[in-house]
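Subject: design request, 140 residues
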């Protein structure tokens, strides 16, 4: 299987509860390698741009406000089949549906405050990585 890169966000509910290390450990234990990472406080513009695909959804305002509420950690993860692997480690979007042992089952508070984001395709991973990182910031 191919080595891929995917994009990850450790969301405000997790950074606020000091779970950054716990989340990274679950990603690393699952076989992914952090090849870029930075802690940032998103502006409204940056958060709205990132989630533009959801702009017509009823929860968009709530989602943007939440993502600006505390710092986040944006990361590039590398590994075999990294896009699908990251989604497997994260678990379902709604923690009520997430398999035991996944990040969202262990740590998420609700469908909105669900601790992590991960790219849903290789194509979106590339777009999302480029939204936050330049080539020099990714050290594989
Ligand atoms: P994420 O993978 O970051 O992509 C879009 C986010 O929208 C998703 O995770 C959820 O956190 C959020 N989301 C999806 N559905 C809802 C909802 N019904 N209410 C609030 N937030 C939602």
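Subject: RE: design request

Done. Sequence follows.
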């Amino acid at each position: 299987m191919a080595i891929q890169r995917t994009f990850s966000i450790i969301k405000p509910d997790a950074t606020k509860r000091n779970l950054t290390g716990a989340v990274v450990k679950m990603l690393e234990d699952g076989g992914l390698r952090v090849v870029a990472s930075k802690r940032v406080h998103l502006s409204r513009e940056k958060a709205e741009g990132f989630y533009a695909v959801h702009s017509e959804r009823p929860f968009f305002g709530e989602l943007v406000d939440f993502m600006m509420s505390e710092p986040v950690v944006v990361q590039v993860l590398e590994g075999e089949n990294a896009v699908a692997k990251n989604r497997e480690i994260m678990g379902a979007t709604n923690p009520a549906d997430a398999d035991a042992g996944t990040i969202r089952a262990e740590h998420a508070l609700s469908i909105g405050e669900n601790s992590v984001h991960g790219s849903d395709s290789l194509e979106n991973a590339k777009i999302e990585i480029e939204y936050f990182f330049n080539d020099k910031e990714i050290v594989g």
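The first helix runs from residue 12 to 16.
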